[in-house]
Structure prediction request, 540 residues.
Amino acid sequence: MSDKDFVDTTIRVRYAETDTMGIVHHSNYIVYFEEGRSDFGRATGHPVTELERAGYFLAVTEVNVRYMRPAVYDQIITLRTRLTGVQSRGLSFAYEIRDAENGDLLVTGSTKHICITRDGKAARLPEAWRDWSLD
Amino acid sequence: MSDKDFVDTTIRVRYAETDTMGIVHHSNYIVYFEEGRSDFGRATGHPVTELERAGYFLAVTEVNVRYMRPAVYDQIITLRTRLTGVQSRGLSFAYEIRDAENGDLLVTGSTKHICITRDGKAARLPEAWRDWSLD
Amino acid sequence: MSDKDFVDTTIRVRYAETDTMGIVHHSNYIVYFEEGRSDFGRATGHPVTELERAGYFLAVTEVNVRYMRPAVYDQIITLRTRLTGVQSRGLSFAYEIRDAENGDLLVTGSTKHICITRDGKAARLPEAWRDWSLD
Amino acid sequence: MSDKDFVDTTIRVRYAETDTMGIVHHSNYIVYFEEGRSDFGRATGHPVTELERAGYFLAVTEVNVRYMRPAVYDQIITLRTRLTGVQSRGLSFAYEIRDAENGDLLVTGSTKHICITRDGKAARLPEAWRDWSLD
Prediction:
């Protein structure tokens, strides 16, 4: 597979994302993961905006996160997003967040998603979304 | 006027709402204000959920906040929400946030809103929303 | 064990917690879990504020969430927080979020935590925090 | 004055920043403003991280926002941050947010800040922070 097997997103930590411990609040990595998926979709010709215009949404059914090292305000981090599974009705992704400068591994995670219609019913992914020849 | 001239909401500060300074991040008071409006609507028979089911939204057009004293994690605060203006197409509110225990004034603010339809067009408030005999 | 085996927290969904799909953004359940832990600590005589005053923090090392049904603005939900493990240097919790009215299961999850000092070093939990005779 | 009179920040709207109305929740512009200040400080040699390492914080005392047009998920916006006042103990900023493509004005705002020490006492700004020859 090509380099489109994964997509890297660079993020600078916002002040509002930190908490009293002086580090990024752990819930914000879930938001970073989502932006990684957005970038992955854009980079591979599957923008989420297009899916939603067609009347479909990718609902999150599972999130798992491991926290190794904290990130702090102003730190630049690199999020690597990888598509790990494609089913007729869903997708799976895996994530790695590293310090952009020294490469230290900060956080890893994975998410699962199912395709739903606006009224919340599970649906088959549109044809274009089941075809991810990532090269 | 009766005690329905204003509505008080009790909020306990969440850990995620704090930042590296060890205090509530200033953007969160805007979220508290919104919950104050929600409570005001419920307490006076004008729930926002009902307005939205009828196809209308109260879009925010203006927010002003003054910060006097910071709140910290676990602190219990009282938000007083007051309706300060009713126009055919909009509403205005004012807010005071105090420490629930000693009454110290922490934050004051005001917001303005216009009624819009789902497609974003300005609209007259539904009849029931122009009538706020607050007693 | 007694009813202190778990602690229930009632939460009303805030407007700001929803997203374009019209449901609670999935990252917010992580914030709810944290408030469940806060409540659990208060209800069992182990307030987080006290731990932090003693110079210790409970850093999150792992979060797992399963999403079954979405919650929407204004919905009242019940979060059940259960302590599932106590080690010399850490704690584990499990969570269930249900619709407060009909009891439908919306979200389940678990988290793991280690005790650290302000400079981020792992530490033994203070004595009082290793003793959770939950009755 | 030179082009350092203001600093432009490009932001892509995150999914988590939207709400049930399908637009950016109004509280998030306050977070964007803060990132504008961060960028302004970095671009003019006054990074916030350096100020905080010296033991000072810029506490927010006032926020004012006017909302003209909504932004939506995935939209690219340009935030222009301008320093509008320097006092011995504080700073003032003004902001304009526009659609990055067509230049439509979406949101304007202003903030005021005072310099405080870690224990919350008002303090004179460090010398370097009172000198903003912006050229």
